[in-house]
Amino acid sequence: MAEGAPQATGPIRNPQDFWGGIAVLLFALFTLYAGSDLPGMRGFAFGPGTAPRLFGGLLVAVSLIIIVNGVISNGPPLERWGIRAPVLFIASVVFFGATVRPLGLVISAFVTLMIASAASKEVRWVESAVWSALLTAASIALFVYGLNLPMQLWPR
């Protein structure tokens, strides 16, 4: 940590790591719960619940390491955070899910990426439009031509 940087005080010496680890732990526990009714491994055969349990268990282990690190190591205090980024990011994902069929991949992917770009306070709209166009083209190349998925590109 840089010399002169603000240090957290109290029993939790690195609150950013501690609370980040708690968030990852909650996600991991939800993953384990959501996949609990899926059949797992039988002998050497993988079942549909094997990967969620494996990744959920690994996430639990990593999150516990991060939480312990937050308690024993020094770090910066929690910073203020706004609601803009999470709301716009979630809105972009919901928008894509709701519009990919009626609007097609081209329009929905481009607008989704523009909504996600708006999540940053430092957004540069021209750069965002260029990157959105490039990522949309890459999505088309990958999903439609590379993987041969039957996705409609434009509205009907």
Please name the defining characteristics of this protein.
0% strand, 156 residues, mainly alpha, 2 domains
Class of secondary structure makeup: mainly alpha
Contiguous low-pLDDT stretches (5 residues minimum) are none
What does the main sheet amount to? none
Give the oligomeric state of the chains in this entry, treating copies of one chain as homo and distinct chains as hetero: single chain
Distance between the termini: 55 Å
Count, helices = 5
Number of strands: 0
Give the % helix.
55-70%
- Rg over CA atoms, rounded to whole Å, is 21 Å
Order of helices and strands: HHHHH
Share of β-strand residues: under 5%
Mean pLDDT: 89
What is the count of distinct domains?
Answer: 2
Shape: flat
Notes on the structure:
With 156 residues, the chain is mainly alpha-helical. The protein folds into 2 domains: 15-72; 84-146, no CATH class. It is built from 5 helices and no strands. The chain has helices spanning 15-34, 50-72, 84-103, 105-117, 125-146. Helix 1 packs antiparallel against helix 2, helix 3 (84-103) packs antiparallel against helix 4 (105-117) and helix 4 runs antiparallel to helix 5. It is flat. 12% of the residues are buried. The model has no long low-confidence stretch (mean pLDDT 89).
Short structural description:
With 156 residues, the chain is mainly alpha-helical. It has helices at 15-34, 50-72, 84-103, 105-117, 125-146.
Topology:
Elements (H helix, E strand, L loop, with lengths): L14 H20 L15 H23 L11 H20 L1 H13 L7 H22 L10
Helix pairs in contact: 1-2, 3-4, 4-5
